[in-house]
Amino acid sequence: MLDIDWATYLVYLSMSNQQIKGHLEAMVLAILESGPAHGYSIIESLRSESDGLFDLPEGTVYPALHRLEENGLIKSSREVVDGRERRIYQLVPAGLGSLKESRAAWQAFSSAVSRILVVNP
Amino acid sequence: MAGLLICSISNFGGEPLMNAIENYLDELNSLLETSEKHKKEILGEVRDHLLDSTAEKISLGISSSQAEHEAVNAFGSANLIAGGFNACEGAKATKQAPIITLLSGILVLATFLIVAWSQPRNTSSASIFQQITFFLGVISVQVALAAGICGTSRALSLWKSLENSGKDRAFIKRALKISLLALQIGVAAISVNFILDSVHNKSSNRTALVLGMVVMIAGSIAGLASVTKLRINSSNVIQEDYSIHSPGILSLGERVISVIKRHPIVPLLFVAILSGLSGMNKAETSTLQQALPWGAAEVMATVLGYLLIGPYLGLREPRSESSAFN
Q1: In what order do the strands lie in the sheet with A84-91?
Q2: Hey, what CATH class is A6-109 in?
Q3: Is residue B226 in some structural domain?
Q4: Contacts of B48 in chain A (CB under 8 A)
Q5: Are residues B128 and B253 in the same domain?
Q6: Which residues, listed in sequence order, are joined to residue A50 by a DSSP beta bridge?
Q7: Would the pLDDT of A3 be above 60?
Q8: ipTM computed for the complex
Q9: Are B164 and B243 within one domain?
Q10: How much is the pLDDT for B27?
Q11: Looking at chain B, which residue has its C-alpha nearest residue A39?
Q12: Average pLDDT, stretch B296-324?
């Protein structure tokens, strides 16, 4: 379950799919931080971790994964999962570094928005 | 939901919905603009996902044909997904294009310098045709340099970016093709100049001239052909059309160009005067009086080049376009 405060939740609600797409790579890296996964389980995690808030077309995760791999932030391998060969993605050190930068940037952004949007009682 | 019902009803007694996944994959295959090997990987991965998604829906009690259809719908339109993959391929190509252009330019320049160094000094004034061809060659190389810098600076600003738009990719491809085309024209003009020089100058090293011409022409043609062949995929089918530019020094070139675009007079005057003086210096004439027209011609060519080609290189604001840095 995603643990967020109301201010951040309001920011999420106001974001269009376009804006979510801009953060998709960072969220994919965050999911891979828990361990290697294939595309289907990544999109399932995105949906469940956001309580259904992130409802992008499922296929959009694959170009994001390919972009991340192209930029050396993740790597892929073919493995047999449930009797079928799948492409499994895992985070590499450069990806972990990028994820930390994304987290710091998001913290700074959401704190600034919260300070402006949330009215103190 | 109504759409799904209509779809399933209309398919009773007709083509079964079991082909929904294969039809989708066929459509995706026709829209992808990547290498065959990459296409095969993508389609395999997409098929795996759709089969997983279908299996999950069947486990929830949905019929297999309906589950397949829903899985395809949830995946996203083939246009959208193919656009994402094509943009990824395009991003890779926009890194290769400036490197190819630079290598082509270096090869031509190095060859020209070697050939020029290998020639004995010609003390007599060049004929008018030699002067014209040399002037054309220099102007073309200046255009090639300017276009190359514009295309490369945009590519550099996107170097570490995970997202770049079809508009940016189209600009990079256009700028670098202009650069390589101008380089070819310059090479042709210089080659004619070499031929005229070998005719008028009996002591010229003809072997070096011929070899130099062949290498320069081959190098410039190979560069243009390679960049044209790259899958830069400027037709961005995704509706959102934005780039995330790299911070810091990688975007320095773009910021400078943005300043030039907003305040063009001073940089244009500076470049035009420099071109004029350079033109007079390079003019193969005996007197300053004879060199002056070439200097003036360089100034005019620089201003005209800015007016005509500037909008295509992002140096001048056309009526409808704007840069990401404005």
Answers
A1: A37-38, A84-91, A74-81
A2: mainly alpha
A3: yes
A4: 38-40, 84, 86-87
A5: yes
A6: none
A7: no
A8: 0.79
A9: yes
A10: 95
A11: B49
A12: 78
